[in-house]
Amino acid sequence: GVENMSVSGLWLRCRSSRPYVLAAIAAIGICCTAAAGASAQNPKVLKLGYILSRHSQLGAGASVFADEIAKRTGGRYRIEQYPDSALGGEVEMLKAVQLGTVDLAFITGAPLPNILPDVGVFNIPFLFSNVTHAHAVLDGPIGQSYLAKFRTKGLVALAWGENGMRHLTNSRHEIRSPEDLKGLKLRVPQSDVMLAGFNALGANVKPLAFPLLYSALQSGEFDGQENPIATILSSKFYQVQKYLTLSGHVYDPAILFISDDDFDDLSAEDQKAFIEAAKFAGHASRDFAAEAEKSGVAQLAQSGMSVITNVDRAQFAAAMASANPIFSQKFGADLIQQIRNYR
Questions:
Q1: How far apart are CA 185 and CA 187, in angstroms?
Q2: Which class for 334: exposed (0-12), middle (13-18), buried (19 or more C-beta within 10 A)?
Q3: What are the phi and psi torsion angles at 104 (to 5°)?
Q4: What is the percent of the chain with per-residue pLDDT over 90, rounded to a whole number?
Q5: Residue 211 to residue 89: CA distance in whole angstroms
């Protein structure tokens, strides 16, 4: 019955054998410490996938997330990164996280409506006036309510991150006005909203998964594409694209997802740690994207791209106006206006 006795009871019974009892208590402490150390030495490994390189806005966020998780859980969890689409394209990765075959994924904004159509409202071209406006919306009640909606899809959206402001590139000619897009073979992400927007400009648009994009540009299957500066740099699109137009037509967020099974298996304390670590990751991706916007354009110019600045965004927005009824019907004119006016 010693195993059913309290330590104090053991102490009273064995007062005459104090040295032995102290040794027993010390042994119990050593065993507990060893057990705790073993969990840190044999952490639970979670796979985290994303489409860009480690040296990208997503890579910066993923690395911060991995460091924060290791620190906040005392090494009991280890994040294993799979950059460069090693786990597939973004739609594939989202479905894999839903199924639980991938633990985590850092996904850009454009493909999210494939899982949750409502979130496509953030894909509307020229919805946000600038990055500060976008951050205010996403970090406020509107953006946080959309994170919560993913729970109904078997996903836990831990925090918003950033892909960045999307800009146009192409291999044929300068794009200074909406008319310059007419007939251009333009790749867009797997997003119905972005398809509708660029169709309104008269471009010959088709969706394509990101992992196939570089070779499609290289072969001439597409004349152009649109992505944030950080992505154009990290994916080396300057090698197959000559012209860069700083259109800033869509603000593209990102979300760090975890499968609901993985999240529900965490203790309440660890769930909090994962959410807080994801927030740090989101800010790291924003910082990386902001730095790329500042210094990346010059790097692309040095790499041989012809850069078109001072673009009349209002002219492009007006040319896309024919798509507005589609967006209003899909998401509601009141919501769109609420987002436009939010500060």
A1: 7
A2: exposed
A3: -140, 150
A4: 85
A5: 6
